[in-house]
Amino acid sequence: MILNNLGHTGLRVSALGFGAMHINDERTTEAEAGALLNHVLDLGINLVDTARGYGLSEERIGRHLNTRRADFVLSTKVGYGVEGVPDWTYDCIVQGVERALKLMQTDWLDIVHLHSCPLHVLEQGEVVRALNDCRTAGKLRVAAYSGDNAEIDFALVCGAFGSLQTSVSICDQAHLNLRAARADHAGIGVIAKRPLAGAVWRHAQRPDDFAEGQYWDRFKAMSLPAKEDWADLALRFAAFHTGVASAIVGTAKPANLRRNIEAISRGPLPAELVVAVRAAFDQHGDAWPGLI
Ligand SMILES: NC(=O)c1ccc[n+]([C@@H]2O[C@H](COP(=O)([O-])OP(=O)(O)OC[C@H]3O[C@@H](n4cnc5c(N)ncnc54)[C@H](OP(=O)(O)O)[C@@H]3O)[C@@H](O)[C@H]2O)c1
Fold it and tell me: How many CB atoms within 10 Å of residue 83?
């Protein structure tokens, strides 16, 4: 597995990361979740991404990976969902971090994102201060922001974040022009979320999910040259783009996990294919912002 520096954070992360959003409920049994999480690490993937909002995901990571904690980089997201505490306040961040530590049975978190924190809250500064106070206290290593568009623009220049998580895929390229270069220049790590654009090519009908529906429209409108293996093209496009340290694919299926490992092992796409995918998006670029 290829390991990349996550900006200047000192962390090294696998080019393929694991998005643990899909092990959020009983559609994946406890035994399946445990086997999948261990399989992820056995395959050499060392970045596991979760969030307060991903149902059973954090609890399951704690339950099934607590004896292997030193073997992986643990990323989560906070800002909401602490009982009795208003969302997006200093106390919500501090208690959210404490809650995540306890639930995931660990003494430290590697990367903690403010999860789609609204711009005006970011600008006000209290939650940013809370996250960095947690870092100073040794509870987390990297203070990070997760989101897109104007919020990412602010996060890039405010100097408070070592890493960003943002949408990067064949159908979501808003980050790739100015923002990716800026992050690279500033030594800010970038984690690509939704790197397969939800694998929308699988669906005969437009998906109901808001983001996947939009990705489906974009995929059709881009009229990319037909490919037998869209997952291969999509993953290699996102994972090997300049400045991207890791592409966190979500899956609950071990077979897809292995396919994704194989795709990464094939390395970057041919340059002319990357140019074609960029051009197909750029025809619509201004009308297609990043999707949270
Ligand atoms: N910060 C945020 O606000 C935010 C928002 C969205 C996502 N995320 C993060 O990003 C991660 C990924 O996002 P995502 O899951 O929405 O999108 P994604 O990774 O672009 O796509 C996931 C979908 O692709 C399918 N898939 C995976 N590998 C495949 C393959 N080789 N061939 C065909 N289909 C494949 C999965 O289905 P199967 O289960 O059938 O494999 C799943 O439905 C999440 O887990 C989460 O960690 C963060």
Answer: 6
Average pLDDT value over all residues in the chain: 96
What pLDDT, on the 0 to 100 scale, is given for residue 187? 96
Which single residue is written with the structure tokens 């987390």?
Answer: 140
Q: What is the pLDDT of residue 225?
A: 80
* Mutational test site, ligand 1, from 196, 212, 232, 246, max ligand atoms within 8 Å of CB: 196
- For the segment 126-145, the average pLDDT, to the nearest whole number, is 98
What residue numbers bound the domain in which 238 lies? 3-287
pLDDT value of residue 233: 97
CA of 197 to the centre of ligand 1 (A): 7
Alpha-carbon torsion (43, 46, 48, 49), positive or negative? negative
222: number of Cβ within 10 Å: 17
Are 115 and 78 in contact by the 8 Å Cβ rule? The answer is: yes
**CB atoms closer than 10 angstroms to residue 186:** 14
Residue 253, in any domain of the structure: yes
**Higher pLDDT, residue 178 or 106:** 106
pTM of the shown model: 0.97
Strands 140-146 and 109-115, by their bridges, are: parallel
Q: How many residues does the chain have?
A: 292
C-beta of residue 71 within 8 angstroms of C-beta of residue 95: no
Distance between start and end Cα atoms, the chain? 28
- Ligand 1 centroid vs 138 CA: distance in angstroms? 31
CATH label of the domain that carries residue 250:
3.20.20.100
Return the percentage of the chain with pLDDT > 90, whole number: 92
Residue 292 lies in a domain: no
